[in-house]
Amino acid sequence: MNVLVLLGSLRDGSTNRTLAEAAVAHLPEGATATYFNRGADLPHYSEDLDVEGSVPQVATELREAVAAADALIVVTPEYNGTLSSVVKNTIDWASRPREAASIHGKQAIVLAASGAPYGAEWARKDAVRSLQIAGADVVEDTFGIGASYEAFAEGRLVDGEADAALQALVARLGAPVAA
Ligand SMILES: Cc1cc2nc3c(=O)[nH]c(=O)nc-3n(C[C@H](O)[C@H](O)[C@H](O)COP(=O)(O)O)c2cc1C
User: Fold this and answer.
1) Is the CB of 151 under 6 A from ligand 1?
2) What are residue 82's DSSP bridge partners?
3) Which residues form the NADPH-dependent FMN reductase-like domain (predicted)?
4) Ligand 1 within 6 A of 18 CB?
């Protein structure tokens, strides 16, 4: 299994990146993870840019990376009550051209870390909806961690129950998504 990680925080020291790494550590042996690290380079989606023959190289790279992946791990902070615009823009680029969208049918799980106590619940909900509308085969159950600045030690979630819940969600990658 080849998993692509789409990360919504651009910040050095991002707790969402730490969460992504904690999730990747739970992938089964033999699975590989690739991080799409060019979210900041992707222009805001515009149909004027998305023209056959002159699609920005970074968007082509994204689409190829999504196409090559068996599954996506989407990790987003919550900004003003919704998912990060970096993740949203990434989904938008991967959702076109509509009839050949690389994200179509791609299995995905959604994770979020927030400094606030609610585990970025709104961001997760909105990310699931956006991924569904884009055509991904997204698992509706998500994983969120609040108080994220204190949640990790040595790249792992300190709370064993939370880590088990993360592991259980990651284990659903590769299994059919329940209707
Ligand atoms: C512009 C902005 C808006 C934010 N809005 C929310 C919010 O609506 N809900 C929330 O839980 N945290 C909010 N936060 C706090 C983020 O959860 C916190 O910055 C988090 O650590 C970001 O993830 P990172 O550590 O991966 O960068 C906001 C932060 C910023 C910069």
Assistant:
1) no
2) 79
3) 1-147
4) no
Q: Partners of 5 in the beta sheet?
A: 35, 73
- Cβ–ligand 1 distance for 76 under 6 Å, the answer no
The model's pLDDT over 96-149, given as tens digits with 9 standing for 90+, comes to 999 999 999 999 999 999 999 999 999 999 999 999 999 999 999 999 999 999
Residue whose C-alpha is closest to residue 152's, from 26, 9, 13, 29? 13
User: Which residues are within 8 A (CB) of 45 and not within 5 positions of it... i.e. 6 or more apart?
Assistant: 89, 92, 93, 96
Instruction: Encode the chain in three state secondary structure.
Output: CEEEEEECCCCCCCHHHHHHHHHHCCCCCCCEEEEECCCCCCCCCCCCCCCCCCCCHHHHHHHHHHHHCCEEEEECCEECCEECHHHHHHHHHHCCCHHHCCCCCCEEEEEEECCCCCCCHHHHHHHHHHHHHHCCEECCCCEEECCHHHCEECCEECCHHHHHHHHHHHCCCCCCCCC
**Domains of the chain as residue ranges with CATH:** 2-170 (3.40.50.360)
Residue 175 confidence class, pLDDT cut points 50, 70, 90:
confident
